[in-house]
Design brief:
This protein has 488 residues and is α+β, with helices and mostly antiparallel strands. 19% of the residues lie in helices and 42% in strands. It contains 9 helices and 24 strands. It has helices spanning 4-14, 30-33, 51-59, 84-92, 121-125, 132-155, 202-214, 303-311, 361-369; strands at residues 67-78, 118-119, 158-171, 178-194, 223-225, 230-234, 241-245, 250-271, 276-296, 316-330, 334-341, 347-349, 372-374, 378-386, 392-399, 403-404, 410-411, 413-421, 429-437, 444-452, 456-463, 466-469, 472-475, 477-487. The radius of gyration is 28 Å and the shape is elongated.
């Protein structure tokens, strides 16, 4: 069973968001076969803009080339960290909170219960005028905190997505081509850590401790500045010592919700005895809602309450237009294709966040730049082979370059898949695929899918990477898609 932290994080993320194709894994049969023109009649409408005309020509006017597949899909991916909330709460104890005048008002915060650092009483009791041993101990503590930050930056994340998609192939001969229409409601959400390196110089720290010891006890200040970021806070009454960090490492959550309306046109452009070249274009109208929430680790005392507040964060609405173009060469038993997505690279803006608590220029620069999202232009290449009766097929797709999604992750998919089709059976289709991300998380997914009763599609995809959660070995990502085909 998933740990309580993962279950809660997943529920919070899924409660407010959804997302479909793009840099993510696409819904429908494409979840298994990849972002390729797989030739499964109307089910190919979600891929290359030129594919609809090619499929209409192959169908020879058959109504099966016109229709839609109503698809719903969803998934979750999380890092290799158990008890996510507890990790953030424990780490945050070492970090100094923001000043009261910075306007920080995070949910679940109880300043009077904030420990103000990590108790180093045992270290302090071992101190003597020769502070070398103390410095080594403090350096190890800094190294521990640095390692914890690296874990947060790389593994302490969770993301989820849902998708509702309805691509429609209209057919017809208007302008001697095939028209498609699509509508989808989509989005995704991700919570992750952004780390700032801890600056610690042993020589400077040693000198600061020596100066403190050389003072008379009555003149010793309660705070020992070991570096710009590392402090020791001494209670003169109890002699307790707290190790604190002045650092802008933060927890960030980003969410998007997108309504997309698409209109596509494709037609044959040139033909010979060897095959036919099809060209197509698809225009999109995007209505994107964007949300962003940030909290310095020093201001977190209840990560679970913070995640609950993130779920209710306000969204900012942005509208843009986009354009995809594609080409597909279809031979007797093969086809080769290319498409360019987001030709005009639409730009969107996330809401601003409170920058007052931040002190380091690098943290501020990151948060300012993180507010901008550009749908990167991307070249996708594909190739397919079909048996003589088209019962068997093999497909290969690759993204020529990586792109960044609205949440900051990078994607560059390469896919290898196969399909078996037997329309005379109650189980007319079965497929298998392997998909690997060449960028970002570099996750690999194995996918399986079936088509039953000629209209029902089911696909499931699982990451090959695993993680230990509450003693159980589980995949780090799991996704599924259900679709219903309708033709006219």
């Amino acid at each position: 069973m998933l740990s309580r932290s993962i279950v809660i994080a997943s529920a919070l993320l899924l409660a407010s968001t959804a997302h479909a194709a793009g840099p993510y894994q696409p819904p429908g049969a494409n979840l298994t076969l990849g972002d390729v023109s797989h030739g499964l009649r109307v089910r190919t409408a979600t891929s290359n803009p030129a594919a609809a005309a090619a499929e209409a020509a192959r169908a020879g006017g058959n109504t099966a080339a016109r229709g839609t597949v109503l698809t719903g899909a969803g998934g979750i991916e999380y890092g290799n960290v158990d008890n996510l909330f507890e990790l953030y709460d424990e780490i945050s104890g070492a970090y100094k909170p923001s000043d009261p005048d910075d306007g920080v008002d995070l949910p679940g915060q109880l300043p009077e219960q904030k420990p103000g650092g990590i108790d180093l009483g045992q270290i302090w009791n071992a101190l003597d005028p020769d502070v070398q041993a103390a410095i080594e101990t403090l350096a190890r503590e800094v190294a521990t905190q640095t390692a914890a930050l690296l874990v947060i930056g790389e593994e302490a994340y969770a993301r989820a997505w849902l998708a509702a998609d309805a691509p429609v192939v209209l057919g017809g001969n208007a302008l001697n081509g095939t028209w498609t229409f699509g509508v989808s409601w989509s989005g995704s959400s991700r919570a992750f850590g952004v780390v700032q390196a801890i600056q610690f110089d042993r020589d400077v720290a040693r000198q600061a401790l020596e100066d403190w010891f050389n003072d008379l006890p009555i003149n010793r200040p309660p705070v020992i500045e070991l570096s710009e970021e590392v402090q020791l806070v001494v209670d003169p009454v109890t002699n307790a010592v707290l190790f604190t960090l002045e650092n802008d490492s933060s927890l960030i959550s980003k969410s998007t919700q997108t309504t997309r309306l698409s209109l596509g046109y494709s037609r044959p452009a040139w033909a010979s005895e060897r095959g036919t070249l099809y060209l197509g274009a698809e225009a999109h109208a995007y209505i994107m809602e964007l949300s962003r929430y940030t909290a310095r680790l020093g201001d977190i005392t209840d990560a679970e309450a913070l995640f609950d507040e993130i779920r209710n964060a306000d969204f900012r609405t942005d509208e843009r237009l986009g354009l995809d173009v594609g080409a597909l060469w279809v031979g007797e038993n093969y086809q080769l294709g290319a498409q360019i997505t987001n030709v005009n690279e639409p730009k969107f803006t996330f809401p601003e966040v409170n920058l007052t608590p931040y002190r380091t220029a690098s943290a501020i620069q990151f948060l300012v730049g993180d507010a901008k999202y550009v749908m990167d232009r991307q070249l996708k290449l594909e190739g397919s082979w079909f048996s003589r009766e088209r019962r068997w097929s093999a497909h290969f797709g690759i993204d020529a370059d990586s792109v960044k999604d609205p949440l900051g992750d990078r994607y560059q998919w390469v896919t290898l898949s196969g399909n078996f089709s037997n329309e005379d059976s109650w189980l007319p289709g079965a497929r298998i695929g392997v998909r690997h991300n060449l960028a970002g998380t570099e996750k690999t997914y194995l996918s399986l899918g079936v088509t039953a009763f000629e209209f029902f599609n089911f696909d499931i995809s699982s990451a090959l990477d695993t993680v230990e959660i509450s003693g159980d070995t589980l995949p780090q990502g799991l996704m599924a898609s259900i679709g219903f085909r309708i033709t006219w």
